[in-house]
Specification:
The protein is an alpha/beta fold and 435 residues long. It has 2 domains: 230 residues, Glycogen Phosphorylase B (Rossmann fold, 3-Layer(aba) Sandwich), CATH 3.40.50.2000; 187 residues, Glycogen Phosphorylase B (Rossmann fold, 3-Layer(aba) Sandwich). The chain is built from 17 helices and 13 strands. It has a 7-stranded parallel sheet with strand order 3-2-1-4-5-6-7, with helices on both faces. Strands 10-9-8-11-12-13 form a 6-stranded parallel sheet, sandwiched between helices. Helix 1 crosses helix 17 and helix 5 runs parallel beside helix 6. The chain is globular and about 70 Å long. The chain starts with a strand and ends with a helix.
Length: 435
């Protein structure tokens, strides 16, 4: 039985960066699971990166994508090229101002327009289920409302926490109570909640005791095996160092607030000053946007000739950089509820089957790294300990002492398999609604 699903998502190709991956890959593989898919997404808005390759995948699947223009801040710059990543000072300031004056978030304008567009679509066509992924969370209340209006089951997907999110800022008690009440209200009116890890599930159950344990389904991030199959290893990106004696340590992604390269770079600088013969065999590579704040850290430490900076590249190119690296690096620092973070890039790191240095706090990311097996985990702020890790990876790489990755765990992160699980749960909701 072919089911019709309406998917509403703000972060969707051609927007780039990691926030679009989950929904884009779900859409891709739900097509293979026999779903007839219509997606409501924004028109091209100002953003830090775009990725046409991800959009092309969905066009090839004949996915129907309806574009809606809102009045959110980024929409006013929609004709511009990718906007430059601001310094950390300005990024945090804009974020604080946004959370002060836009409730529940600054995408509410778009969410409202998407809601009106969904009303039109649902009035003309018969759908079986509605699915939405957040952030932004302003869409969730409208999606719950659509479910009531059209008697359709609703499934919500949490890529992060909403209330008490690691980046949340509540300038007054009113702001905090408003967000909690807002979330509580829509959670009472949905049939199924998907979350990326157990930590988010536990937080929701503790915060909202009315939620049924079985109503929340853990569906972690993953990797698309086809992305790795497409990489032609005979056409690797040329190693700029041209020196097989170098160990390439790569970070892929962006930095913000408590996810920072500062301590990692300080540890490398300390190694360079005390044991230059060892540091000289390690090359650091950052793939993705580095804002002015992080560029200044590199300048201050005088590491520009030791660090390779690769600006944002499309997803398939990022995969190539992962596969040509010797070791990968992940950082999750200490912040409010940072134990609930398990970034999507971690699972692509895992799919590369490369050794991973995990500068992470206790929580979901650390748990995943332990299950993966081929990782070294260290306190994200312990400069001395990180320096020792540099020395250790040099020895372990040269002598091939890294443990073998847990292949069963890697296979469990396959987005095809994860989407099959999603499809099963969505069908259950549809049939329950028809009963």
């Amino acid at each position: 039985m072919k089911l019709k699903i309406l998917i509403i998502s703000y972060y969707f190709p051609p927007l780039g960066l990691s926030g679009v991956q989950r929904v884009a890959k779900f859409v891709k593989y739900l097509c293979d699971e026999g779903f007839d898919i219509t997606v409501i997404a924004p028109e091209k808005v100002a953003y830090f990166a775009y990725d046409d390759s991800l959009e092309k995948e969905l066009i090839e699947k004949n996915v129907k994508i309806i574009r809606v223009k809102g009045n959110e801040p980024h929409s006013f710059l929609s004709n511009k090229n990718p906007i430059k990543m601001p310094s950390e000072f300005w990024r945090k300031l804009f974020n604080r101002l946004s959370q002060t004056f836009f409730l529940p978030d600054n995408k509410k304008s778009w969410s409202k327009k998407a809601y009106y567009e969904a009303q039109k679509i649902l009035s003309k066509e018969q759908f079986d289920i509605i699915f939405s992924s957040a952030p932004p969370f302003s869409m969730f209340s409208y999606v719950a409302k659509l479910g009531k209006e059209f008697n359709l089951p609703v499934a919500l997907d949490y890529r992060d926490l909403f209330y008490q999110n690691q980046f949340s800022f509540y300038p007054t008690p009113f702001h905090r109570l408003y967000i909690k009440f807002y979330e509580k209200k829509y959670l009472k009116n949905v049939e199924r909640i998907f979350v990326i890890n157990r930590q988010i599930k536990e937080f929701l159950l503790t915060t909202y005791p009315f939620l049924d344990f079985n109503k929340i389904y853990i569906l972690p991030h993953g990797y698309d095996p086809e992305d790795f199959e497409k990489v032609n290893l005979q056409k690797k990106i040329k190693n700029l160092l041209d020196n097989d004696d170098k160990i390439i340590v790569t970070y892929c992604g962006i930095f913000y607030e408590f996810i920072t390269p500062k301590y990692f770079l300080k540890a490398y600088k300390k190694l360079l000053d005390t044991k230059p013969e060892i540091a000289g065999k390690i090359h650091l590579r950052f793939v993705g946007h580095l804002n002015k704040t992080n560029i200044n850290i590199i300048k201050t430490l005088k590491l520009f000739d030791k660090v390779e900076i690769v600006e944002y590249v499309e997803h398939n190119k990022a995969i190539e950089y992962l596969l040509e690296s010797d070791v990968l690096w992940l950082m999750v620092g200490k912040s409010k509820n940072s134990h609930t973070i398990s970034t999507s890039k971690l699972y692509e790191y895992i799919a590369s089957r490369k050794p991973i240095i995990g500068c992470v706090v206790d929580g979901a990311a650390k748990q995943a790294l332990k299950e993966y097996g081929c990782s070294i985990i260290v306190d994200p702020y312990d400069i001395d300990a990180i320096q020792k890790v540099f020395e250790k990876i040099l020895l372990m790489t040269k002598k091939k002492l890294f443990p073998q990755p847990n292949e069963n765990f890697i296979q469990s992160c396959d987005r095809k398999k994860l989407t099959s699980q999603l499809a099963i749960e969505l069908r259950k909701l549809v049939f329950k609604n028809l009963a």
